[in-house]
Write a structure and sequence with these properties.
It holds the Pfam family Big_9. It is a single chain. The chain has 3 domains: about 90 residues, no CATH class; about 50 residues, no CATH class; about 35 residues, no CATH class. It is about 0% helix and about 35% strand. It contains no helices and 13 strands. The protein is elongated and about 75 Å long.
């Protein structure tokens, strides 16, 4: 609720339906209600809407994970006095989903380790208690080494890409995966 931080210094009643959003420069698609700004969009970020109860909703565009552009709002009390402007700032975090529960269906078949002491059957198991790592494709294990991904100036220079190939594209400045048809930068998102 946008009004969660608001109070009237005269102990009056604040009116959530009187919230007037003050969009930042460059905002578009303004939504009006009773002559007040109730919503707007910021290109590349998303859309803000406030309802008459003071519930403020932000709907980000796909793959927007960052701080939104700050904006302000005012609210009135029952005596029709307008508040000072308050600023709204929001950080949109990546979606994280809980891990699977229950008994794993499969275990990781391939592992690369720099450790001399590890389970005999690592990473395939047959179970977590025997060193198995559930539901993986590749397990990497090291206490002091990193993984170096092949780097190329541009993925278009790879003559015969193979589905599943991963490289770091220096021009695009991202790790790319070849899906059998096209190279795509790997981006963190909340996949359903």
């Amino acid at each position: 609720m946008l009004t969660g931080n608001d109070s009237d210094p005269n102990s009056g009643t604040i009116l959530p339906a009187s919230i007037n959003l003050i969009p930042p420069s460059g905002a578009g698609n303004l939504v009006y209600g009773n002559g007040l700004v109730k919503g707007f969009s910021i290109s590349g970020q998303g859309t803000w809407l406030v309802d008459n109860t003071g519930l403020l909703t932000f709907t980000p565009v796909n793959n927007f994970f960052s701080n939104t552009t700050p904006f302000s709002y005012t609210i009135k009390d029952a005596a029709n006095l307008t508040s000072n402007q308050a600023t709204v700032t929001t950080a949109v975090d990546y979606c994280t989903k809980p891990g699977l529960t229950g008994t794993p269906d499969t275990y990781t078949d391939l592992g690369i380790s720099t450790l001399s002491a590890r389970y005999k059957n690592w990473p395939a198991g047959p179970g977590i208690s025997n060193g198995g790592i559930p539901n993986g494709a590749l397990a990497l294990q090291s206490s002091d080494k990193g993984l170096v991904i092949t780097r190329v100036a541009d993925t278009s220079l790879i003559a015969n890409p193979v589905k599943g190939m991963i490289v770091y594209d220096r021009n695009a400045q991202c790790v790319k995966l070849y899906n059998g048809t096209v190279w795509n930068c790997i981006k963190r998102s909340c996949n359903d």
